[in-house]
Design goal:
The complex is a heterodimer of chains A (113) and B (964). Helices cover 64% and strands 0% of the residues of chain A. In chain A, α1 packs antiparallel against α2 and α2 packs antiparallel against α3. The termini of chain A are far apart. Helices cover 72% and strands 2% of the residues of chain B. Chain B contains 40 helices and 4 strands. In chain B, a hairpin with a 3-residue loop joins β3 and β4. The chains are: A mainly alpha (113), B mainly alpha (964).
Chain lengths: 113, 964
């Protein structure tokens, strides 16, 4: 599973980086979204992979961190997901406005030669 | 406490002054005057304490680890300066009230004047060096704002910029210097620093530190070679020149030199640099003053010269010279401020300050003339005035300053010469302006100003006379206190009497007077040829050097930007990604990336299937994003779902829920954006086939593959190592007992790290408002304005164009879904609240709940149409955001009410009727705030984007209607 997880991060990162380097604004937005999946998974993975043990202290259970998934990266990633959405929205609106102003959806605001 | 009040009062006044109406001249003057007067009275009240105990302190702990505290410290010297600053402030406010014309915007003036007063008092009273440097910069800033007060004038802007550049650069050096000094002395507290003279002077850093501190002091006091900014600062209103640029701010430099005299002085380097700068300023200033045409120009250069005199005294490494320096700081402040005020009155009443036009004003304004004559006499050093006493002390010191023949003869000679210049320019100023026939072609008919405008200068002149005639009884005890606070037990005996007999200094004075009169006559004979610039000044024209330096800096910066940056985003991103990769790769290259020993989780075939779909989606989205945006978007959603499932699989239910919910809104968001993007169908674009384009794509692909592979390898290596002992145990252990929740992730978010979350929802709110604001001025590309093709076809088919507000259900194909979606809204609301409430103990929470609720709103919009929905209900997302932030912040403030720190969680068990026992906690209120912010922000962004569609459609209707 660890290998699959790591490969998934690699594939998401690769696709994201490829799109980031493309000239069209929409490609960049999609690329950033893919990259943020990868980064979120990466941070989440720093707590190691644990199956079936959510960080919830059930009644009658001993509060022992070794018995459950690491809650710290999860807390970090949770807010990152929401912020990621907000910044995507901002970027989208900025790029749409730029397209209206410049007449092109090239990231530089003009078609490159 | 009184000390804190003295510093704080002007700042509070400044804040109030900024908000008074633009024409409230009297209110402003009262406010500023009362503030300054209160500071004066408080200072006077502290005198007995200072006289008895020596030092008064006020310390507020701040950054203990860094050795920094907010520390105020008043000894005799600081007391004297505090009195000077606050008293002079009071007088200048009275003067300024009558000087400023009704058209001038007074709030700005008095606000910055008070801010300056506060900052200057801060410098004087700082007991901590770093804090002193901060106040130091604040004075530079307020000086900048005040010089540029009449910012419509080019000379004001230029002078302000020059003053700020020079003094702020000096302030920067000073900061570096005091940090070094504090490090060398082992503390930033003034008391410890002053006691560490030996350690400091034997330290190898001493020369560098000294030069840095001196750069700060010399720039501030306009000393050679930085004297050029002061004359240009004369573009400020005259009260500012009187207050900042003669009496107080420019004294900050010499104040600092005197303050740090016990630690820094006594070395040859100190003697060479300080004396050198002082001597040069003394001569250059005096000579230049003789050739100015502007009254304020004369005064500015004479200020440079007198500050040079003080600097020279401080540089002599003699205790008696220090006494003379402190004495002269006070004397110079009184007579120079008076002269500035007189110059301002002349300008105000006669309409010009040009020495060539003014003449004989003593006939029209005798009181002003008398005041100016006395002050100028003090400046020239006429007996029975205060300037005479300190000048005699100065002359006496020059005789004993050095050992070599050059110093023994040269220094007194130069001092006498400077004295002669001083006499000459004082004479010229007075004679030219006030005597001779009354000038006839002045812009205004000169007459005496109102009594209140004269009052401040009259008081100051009275002080000049009193100190000059009865020095021992007036300034004596105060001066003794000030000098003792610097020198302590080593204070030398000195005598403050008017008549010392026929001594060498008296002889020097006499020569200076004779020489000065001679110089003036000489100057008068050749006077008609004066060009405004002094003959001596040309090689030292600091202004030209300054301008050249600025231009060169600009050019160099431009070159560097052109060389090192690109306007092309793709290139920038390429650089950034390569750099990030390199930074990550370097440690791996040196330390290797070994696989850990931890056991692997066995592969689950179901997850493997999901994995394949996820990876295909990611790659597919990357491939299709250019020509098939919708397909790419769907695949992006697929990758998002895969991410969400991965979270769920590996024990992160909260993340999985949030990811799914965010996926929905992101998709809707991007779908809304698609409409405004240009069509792109040309798959066989010839540009894509060129060799360059192919190479570029190959390069990007290689980079993408390398970065992806690198991150995969890194993740795998980390995942195969056993977890490190992190913070997890703490949070898990304390979640229930201290946070009162079982869901550890949620407890971290709303309780342990609640401040982070508060910051994050604030960011989300700001972003949402920014999106809204950007879209209010949204101008789409012309070809995107029309209703899209598909929509046109549907309209043509159904015949429904505009929405009909009277209808119970929206028309069109979506009538049935609209019914269902309406039923869904309360259900979705219920689920959202359920998720919110259970969040503390089970997966859920404010983020997820808010997203679910927002999705429910959005669905209404999508299915029923924005206009129809808004006809029925107004969501007002901004209110939700505001309410949410208030709730979250309020939950934090509640803790204060209970005497706990901000955002500490409070809980209480209450029994409600019908419901039974309930645990109420402030964190729930906090989570409700998060919930409301997320609903509001999400809907605000999506709805305002959706609105663009029919707004521009409406515009195109209007245009078509007008055209057809």
């Amino acid at each position: 599973m660890e290998a699959l997880f790591a490969l998934a991060i690699g594939v998401l990162t690769g696709s994201g980086v490829w799109l980031l380097l493309r000239p069209r604004t929409f490609q960049v937005i999609v690329g950033l979204a893919l990259l943020s999946y990868a980064v979120n998974l990466f941070i989440f993975g720093m707590g190691r992979l644990v199956v079936g043990r959510a960080p919830i202290v059930a009644p009658g259970m001993v509060a022992d961190a070794a018995q459950m998934a690491d809650p710290v990266p999860q807390a970090l990633v949770l807010t990152a997901i929401v912020i990621g959405f907000a910044t995507t929205a901002l970027l989208l609106v900025v790029l749409l406005a730029a397209r209206g102003l410049t007449g092109t959806d090239h990231v530089d605001g003009r078609e490159s030669g | 406490m009184t000390l804190a009040l003295i510093v704080l009062l002007p700042f509070l006044g400044s804040l109030c002054a900024a908000f008074l109406p633009a024409n409230a001249r009297n209110a402003e003057a009262w406010l500023a005057g009362v503030c300054a007067l209160a500071c004066t009275v408080l200072t006077l009240g502290l005198y007995p304490q200072i006289a008895d105990d020596g030092v008064v302190r006020f310390v507020l702990p701040w950054l203990g680890q860094a050795g920094l505290a907010f520390s105020l410290r008043m000894d005799g010297f600081a007391w004297l300066f505090t009195l000077l600053v606050s008293l002079m402030g009071t007088l200048v406010v009275i003067y300024a009230r009558y000087y400023l014309s009704p058209e001038d915007p007074v709030p700005r003036f008095f606000s910055f004047l008070l801010a300056f007063t506060g900052s200057m008092l801060g410098i004087v009273l700082s007991g901590n060096l770093v804090q002193l440097a901060i106040f130091w910069e604040l004075t530079s800033f307020s000086s900048f704002m005040l010089i540029a007060y009449w910012y419509h004038r080019v000379d004001a802007r230029h002078g302000a910029r020059m003053a700020l550049t020079v003094t702020a650069a000096g302030g920067f050096c000073l900061l570096a210097g005091v940090i070094m000094l504090g490090t060398m002395a082992g503390s930033f507290e003034l008391d410890q620093v002053l006691a560490a003279a030996e350690a400091v002077q034997s330290h190898p850093w001493y020369p560098v530190m000294l030069v840095l501190v001196l750069l700060g002091a010399l720039t501030k006091s306009a000393q050679f070679p930085f004297q050029f900014w002061l004359p240009h600062a004369m573009a400020a209103p005259t009260p500012v020149s009187a207050y900042l640029h003669s009496a107080t701010m420019v004294k900050a430099g010499v104040f600092l030199l005197a303050r740090l005299w016990p630690v820094l002085a006594g070395t040859d380097l100190w003697f060479a640099v300080v004396c050198g700068a002082g001597l040069a300023s003394l001569l250059i200033g005096a000579a230049a003053a003789l050739f100015q045409r502007d009254m304020k120009g004369v005064l500015a250069y004479s200020t440079v010269s007198h500050l040079g005199l003080i600097t020279l005294l401080l540089g002599m490494n003699s205790r008696l010279a220090l006494v003379a320096a402190v004495f002269h700081m006070m004397n110079h402040a009184t007579f120079k401020a008076t002269l500035f005020m007189a110059a301002g009155i002349v300008d105000h009443e006669a309409g010009t300050r040009d020495l060539r036009r003014l003449s004989g004003l003593a006939h029209a304004m005798p009181i002003t003339a008398t005041v100016a004559v006395v002050a100028a006499a003090a400046m020239a050093g006429v007996p029975l005035l205060n300037g005479f006493l300190s000048k005699e002390m100065f002359f006496a010191e020059t005789i004993f300053a050095g050992d070599g023949l050059l110093l023994r003869v040269g220094l007194p000679a130069i001092a006498t010469m400077a004295g002669a210049f001083s006499v000459a320019y004082s004479l010229r100023l007075i004679h030219q302006v006030f005597y001779g026939p009354l000038a006839q072609d002045l812009p205004r008919v000169p007459h005496e100003p109102t009594r209140w405008m004269l009052l401040p200068s009259m008081l100051l002149v009275a002080a000049c006379l009193l100190v000059g005639i009865f020095p021992a009884r007036t300034i004596g005890p105060v001066l003794a206190l000030a000098v003792q606070s610097i020198l302590g037990a080593e204070t030398p005996p000195y005598s403050l009497v008017v008549w010392h007999g026929f001594t060498v200094p008296f002889l020097m004075s006499a020569i200076a007077f004779a020489g000065g009169i001679g110089l003036y006559l000489l100057r008068w004979f050749y006077g008609q040829r004066a060009t405004g610039g002094a003959p001596l000044r040309a090689p030292f024209d600091g202004r030209r050097v300054f301008d050249i330096v600025i231009v060169v800096l600009h050019r160099v910066a431009e070159r560097m930007v052109r060389f090192a940056s690109s306007r092309r985003l793709q290139l920038q991103l390429l650089m950034m990604i390569s750099m990030a990769f390199a930074v990550g790769a370097i440690p791996i290259a040196t330390h290797g990336l070994a696989r850990g020993a931890a056991g692997l989780t066995p592969v689950d075939p179901v997850y493997a299937l999901v994995w394949i779909v996820g990876c295909v989606c990611a790659v597919g989205a990357a491939v299709q994003a250019k020509f098939h945006r919708l397909a790419a978007l769907i695949m992006l959603g697929g990758a998002g779902l895969f991410t969400s499932l991965t979270f769920a699989w590996f024990s992160a239910p909260d993340l999985a829920l949030t990811q799914v919910a965010v996926e929905v809104v992101t998709l809707v968001l991007l779908l809304l954006g698609l409409r405004w993007l240009p069509r792109r169908l040309d798959l066989d674009d010839p540009d894509r086939r060129t060799r360059r384009a192919r190479l570029r794509r190959a390069r990007d692909l290689a980079l993408a593959v390398i970065v992806g592979a690198g991150l995969a390898a890194l993740s795998f290596a980390v995942l195969t190592h056993a977890p490190v002992e992190g913070l997890a145990q703490f949070f898990v252990e304390h979640a229930l007992p201290k946070g009162g929740g079982r869901n550890v992730v949620n407890v971290i978010l709303v309780d342990f790290r609640g401040f982070d979350t508060l910051g994050e929802i604030t960011v989300v709110s700001i972003v949402a408002l920014t999106v809204y604001a950007l879209l209010r001025r949204f101008r789409p590309a012309p070809e995107s304005i029309d209703v899209p093709r598909a929509q046109r076809a549907s309209i043509a088919e159904s015949g429904i164009r505009a929405f009909n507000p009277g209808e119970l259900l929206p028309g069109g194909d979506l009538r049935i879904p609209a019914v269902l979606v309406r039923l869904l809204l309360p259900m979705a609301g219920l689920v959202a609240v359920y998720l919110l409430l259970r969040g503390h103990d089970a997966p859920g929470g404010g983020f997820v709940g808010g997203l679910v609720m927002a999705t429910a709103f959005i669905t209404q919009y999508m299915v029923s149409g924005a206009q129809w929905v808004e006809w029925r209900m107004r969501v007002h997302p901004q209110y939700w955001v505001a309410l949410g932030l208030t709730a979250a912040g309020g939950a934090g403030l509640l803790a204060w009410a209970a005497g706990r720190p901000f955002l500490a969680s409070l809980g209480a068990d209450v029994t409600l009727p019908l419901v039974g026992p309930v645990h109420l906690a402030s964190v729930l209120l906090f989570d409700v705030g998060v919930y409301l912010v997320v609903i509001g922000a999400t809907s605000l962004m999506l709805v305002s984007l959706a609105h663009q569609s029919f707004r521009s459609a409406r515009e195109s209707f209007a245009r078509d209607g007008a055209g057809g």
